[in-house]
Amino acid sequence: MKKLINDPSAVVRDMLEGVVAFSPATVLLADENVVIRSGLPETEKRKVAVLSGGGSGHEPAHAGYVGAGMLTVAVAGDVFTSPSTDAVLAGIRAAAGPAGALVIVKNYTGDRLNFGLAAELARAEGIPVEIVVVADDVALKDTVPADRRRGIAGTILVHKLAGAAAERGLPLHEVARIARDAADRTSSMGISLGSCTLPAVGRPGFVLGEAEIEVGLGIHGEQGVRRMPIASSDELVKLVLETIKADGRLKSGDRVALLVNGLGSTPPMELAIVARSAVAQLEEMGVVVERAWAGTFLSALDMPGFSLSLMHVDETALGLIDAPTDAGAWPRGGVVNRERILPSARAEKSLPAGNKMTAAGDRLRSTADRIAKILIAAEPKLTQLDSVAGDGDLGASMVRGAEAILALPKENFGDVADGLMAMANAMRRAIGGSSGPFYATALMRASRHLAGIESPTAQQMAEAFVAAVVAISELGGAKPGDRTMIDALHPAAETFRDKLAAGASTEEAWRSAVAAGVAGAEATTSMKPRLGRASYLGERAVGHPDAGAVAVSIWLEAIGRE
Q: How far apart are CA 146 and CA 289, in angstroms?
């Protein structure tokens, strides 16, 4: 187990001290793991206090939602363990005045018992208390009665509405009614790609196969209601939304707020993809997404996966959602962009009618197709090499560029110059990072060298090759010996030109050029990198060839094949 902690038994207190250190809106009780909104007025002047909490490990919940307009108190138990009755009671006593307190509880036995008993003790002391239980997990619709379902990420939306209602000064019974209504209108469901590791345990709660996922899990590292093969984001979102719909909670014409929640280790990139799927599919169903957020709002430690929460809303609910709060973890905003795609203004150059195909252009097209297919086949090798000293994307980049070239119509290869320019544009559009600009620049420079030449000679092709390599050096600053693609390109281009000038046949000159390029690529194994991401590794990169140079050697060899 690798965790950034001190003592496993002190993780909760250490975590809470870190949270309040960066949140002037909160303070921490000295003798309990209870976070309270700072700057509360005198007891007699206080509005309804809104409390929630539960086991830790769900950060930023619950302490992250303490602040004006949201929670007044968050009570934290040990990891995935309900807080004690005394801790909850301490939070009620510290925050509640004559207006009383609303306690929002996720539907777990430990939470219901400890928060419920604390509420009863507070009532015995004369503090008005009401309890709202959130049971939003629709994955359990066929397993347990509705009132026995778990409370998961949709609870955060209930916090927001209740906190905003309390901030308006509404009486306890009205704040409780709003919270119950919000809970009744909220549906959630989670999907996990793996388990999580509790600091005190040191191992995952369950193990999934490489292609397995858990469907309908809770937020405490437990397994889901079933296991299934991994599927695309679109398919998984569809599964969740269809489950909510099958529960009778979603239909055309509904207005909803959407919470796309990461379970702890899901990257923002993947959450954005899930959010895209969710918004698009809801809109296709005729559901109006009034507000939407994507991020980690209620986690399960370091679990990979997501949950979707939908709350049906009207103008009153939207007013409460949009009400200001200084709670640090509330995402704010949430207005959905209705005009998401701007039509492209790029003007494509049209090919002249009856564009003539030269023999040289046709040969270039055949060669380009062969190179593209070989680069696609080499993707695993290039990915592995680039993962050693780069970011691991070269294989995928070469595949994208190759597929773009294969998609070019034959009319683009009227002559060699036209074909090279078409390939340059295809590579430029298909590949980001550094590979796209390098290859596009080289192909464009070569195209300009051969412009107007219907059937270039081998010497002219060699000069264009040298010019292309110079263009890459000018663009990126690399020289031979820097451990880049130039270490394969430069000797290949120079050898081809020089062998032809010395009277060698085209075939012989090219064989020598390929050998020089392959040798140059192999030589990068012992070179210390001086440019690119590999340069950050220094000596650690030595012992492995540069992936970009190896890619060059692959397509150099492919050119000579028939």
A: 25
